[in-house]
Amino acid sequence: MTILASLTKQKKHLSFTALIDSMTSFFNNIKDERQPAKCDYSLHDVLMSAFSCMYFQDPSLAEFQKRLQEEQHINNLATLFGVKNIPKNTQLRDILDEIPPEKLAPIFKDFFNRLRRHKHLEDYAIFPNTLLCAIDGTQYHRSKDIHCEQCLHKEHKTAEITYSHAVLQGAIMHPDKKQVLPVMPEAIANTDGSDKQDCESKAAKRFIKNLRQDHPRQGFLIVGDGLMSHQPMIESFINEGAHFLFVAKPGDHKYRFESLDGFPELASYQFVDEKGRTHYYRWKNKVPLHGGENAIKVNFFEYILKNEDGKITYRNSWVTDINMSRHNIVEMARAGRCRWKIENECFNTLKNQGYYITHNYGHGKKHLSYNMYLLTLLAFYFHQIFELTDGAYQACRKKLGSKKYMWEVFRGSIRLLIFESWEQLMDFVLHREKYEEITLAKRA
Length: 444
Ligand SMILES: [Zn+2]
Fold this sequence. Notes:
Number of helices: 15
Shape: globular
Mean pLDDT: 90
Distance between the termini: 16 Å
CATH architecture of the largest domain: Alpha-Beta Complex
Bound molecules: zinc ion
Structural class: alpha+beta
Number of domains: 2
CATH superfamily of the largest domain: Transposase Inhibitor Protein From Tn5, Chain A, domain 1
Helix content: 40-55%
Low-confidence stretches: 6-11
Number of strands: 12
CATH topology of the largest domain: Transposase Inhibitor Protein From Tn5, Chain A, domain 1
């Protein structure tokens, strides 16, 4: 086994080493409730071994590196992630199953604060001191037989039961930015009820409370779908001091307005862009949300996009607490439209772009499934931060073309060689010739 000589060692606040160090201290702070005599593996080593599989998008990574340790007395989980003793798969699952998922929440908060302190969130502000946080429910486990204490269950007419796990996920995003930055999700619990709107609303209330508690001085514009645009939900967002922007389709029985045409004094604005498309906006402030007593007043707006032939290619409408005017209507419509990114850039990536979010790592009895989701989300967060801030990572992407191929190269490299740091692994991928000379010189 070749151990590469030290060439680079950097410690920036958002580098891999810095983020791993931060995560290490949070893992070490989790109180270990197990009997000391039964602890062959520390909680840190268990959590970090699982995380390393998610990070390298390789479910068998930890097992392979364990074999490397047995044969060569060294492995990359020790050098890159600080794992002292790699657990076997069965032990890893058993121990992870017992760790309360909320113990991982401070890591999301810490990464957010690092991004903020180093000014990376300024480009994400949709209005001064206001970040757009899109929220949506997503399912990451679904089965007719595999289930645990925490599973949601749905009984079908045929008496068949579907078991699932779902979260209300939030992510910071901006219409001009490709990277989305996840925040700690809120699990949809099997005590939240069986109605989709009902249980997502309950989870959303807990979500916003925690988000505001974690970041009390940060303004948020929460962007959500039509499930959110009902009065109790809107009131709880206002009570938590967050702005909201929720889809609201006129004609829906929930709302006062059958259609916007009922308002004679509607404000409007339109412009034609360089591609010949017409962007058309209409809005009205202080409209009662519904016809009932004590209806809350909201500001309503609509956006229609027509192609050069005058055909409607996009149409949507929203309610918000922000006072609508000619000055913010274009930006607000862009903010509302950008919600698709949570589906496309976040969930879709986690499910289909190498992260194995729906991979069956074993389901456990309590928290295994959710902890695996959270560790995968953290791996995704690492990669989003590097895409945004890390020159060497960006250079690897550029050199190797596709993300898929880049990860193949990273995985291939750590199967053959031992790297003393992630930064060195990236340097090796970027400047391979340099390392070949060193290895040859050592042999000679
Ligand atoms: Zn379950």
